[in-house]
Design goal:
By secondary structure, the chain is mostly helical. 73% of the residues lie in helices and 0% in strands. The longest helix is centred in the N-terminal third of the chain and has 34 residues. This is CcmH/CycL/Ccl2/NrfF N-terminal domain-containing protein. One of its GO terms (molecular function) is metal ion binding. It comes from marine metagenome.
């Protein structure tokens, strides 16, 4: 019957798989809710990451490994069955089995002694004491393996759990409170790359650039493969005017297995494009193009990167490079017809370099209809007489 039911179960769609997986993980900042049930921002972000990884072909184990690495083992409702976690789940069962077996043996001996009529009665308390000792010793073993627990803690150990809890609390705290919490984590684990990176980012938000640089440098040194540290340090280096350093971090990031949320962050902040602009201002167009091409190697249809590449090439004024730039701009608009930078840049290039007034007006008009019009692009179009 079980085999037949499994055989007849229809294949899960990607959406079904993503929802099922979300039910298997606890919301990191909620009480008693799964990621699927909670509607807090971090739960929504995790659901998006799960869906993206499922659509990208990741299997359940890959997704589980990523989430456990990011949020700790306590997020996972399903124990791994190996190592300390598996032992903690199995030991209580073994303890109960040993105790029951001892009790059964004791009862048999009591029954046997009762039927014999002349048996020695002192064996009963001895057997009972033996069962009790086995249970107590096994209980002590469980406690030692599991680590000490306070209210609300689980059986996964106190230091690891306390640092993970502090990191989760810091993620939803105010900037000043987050710095305090990350510092507490670093007192327990001085080389914790996540705490270093996010404390550095908190310092930057609070205006302490010196502390931010120190923490971000330490985070990358502690774990050069931690994507968040690379992004944060690249952003700090951009603010510091270190375009080459920022570019190196982003190029290194491209070689890492970063979660989808990191790519979303880069797109939302236009970090790569802004670093490329600064490289061009420093006279290194080729380095800027290498940086953009590195990003396009990961996502060839990234409209923002295509638009920036086309804009930088066209601005040189060299006929051959202008032509290549126009191709990139056309690809950017084709990938996202409503991308503000693609529309604005192509409008200017059509007007200034191609003499295509009709095409420039069409792009500018499309830009003007967008609900969100970046101010710098509006100024650019107005300066060329393409926007009132």
């Amino acid at each position: 019957m079980v085999v037949a039911e499994v055989a007849e179960r229809p294949a899960l769609t990607n959406a079904d798989r993503a929802h099922h997986l979300a039910q298997e993980f606890a919301c990191p900042v909620c009480a008693g809710q799964s990621v699927a049930e909670s509607d807090v921002p971090i739960a929504r972000t995790i659901r998006v990451s799960i869906a993206s990884m499922v659509d990208g072909g990741a299997d359940d184990n890959d997704i589980r490994t990523m989430l456990v690495a990011r949020f700790g083992e306590d997020i996972d409702y399903t124990p791994s069955g190996s190592g300390l976690t598996g032992l903690v789940w199995v030991l209580p069962v073994l303890v109960a089995s040993v105790a029951l077996a001892g009790l059964a043996l004791a009862m048999r001996r009591w029954k046997g002694s009762g039927e014999g009529g002349g048996g020695s009665t002192p064996v009963r308390p001895l057997v009972l004491a033996g069962v009790g000792i086995v249970a107590v010793l096994a209980g002590v073993l469980v406690a030692q393996l599991s680590g000490s627990r306070g209210p609300g803690d689980t059986l996964s150990g106190d230091i690891r759990l306390s640092t993970r809890t502090l990191l989760i609390e810091a993620g939803v705290a105010s900037t000043d409170e987050a710095i305090v919490l990350y510092t507490q984590v670093l007192e327990l684990q001085p080389s914790n790359a996540e705490a270093l990176a996010y404390r550095g980012w908190a310092h930057r938000r609070s205006g302490d650039a010196v502390a931010a640089r120190a923490d971000l440098e330490a985070a990358v040194e502690s774990d050069p493969t931690y994507p968040d540290a690379r992004v944060f340090r690249a952003s700090q280096r951009l603010v510091d005017g270190d375009a080459n350093g920022a570019s190196q971090d982003l190029m290194a990031l491209d070689g890492l297995d970063a979660p989808p949320i990191v790519g979303d962050l880069l797109t939302a902040t236009r970090l790569r494009e802004r670093v490329a602009e600064l490289l061009v201002k420093g006279g290194t167009l080729l380095a800027a193009l290498d940086l953009l091409d590195s990003g396009l190697g990961i996502d060839p249809t990234a409209s923002g990167l295509l638009a920036e590449r086309g804009w930088l090439l066209a601005r040189t004024g060299e006929p051959e490079l202008v032509d290549i730039g126009v191709v990139s701009l056309d690809e950017a608009v084709a990938a996202d017809p409503l991308h503000p930078h693609a529309l604005a840049y192509r409008a200017v290039v059509r007007s200034v370099f191609l003499g295509d007034s009709a095409g420039a007006t069409a792009d500018a008009t499309e830009f003007a209809s967008l609900p969100d019009q970046p101010e710098d692009l509006s100024v650019l179009l107005a300066s060329e007489g393409l926007l009132d």
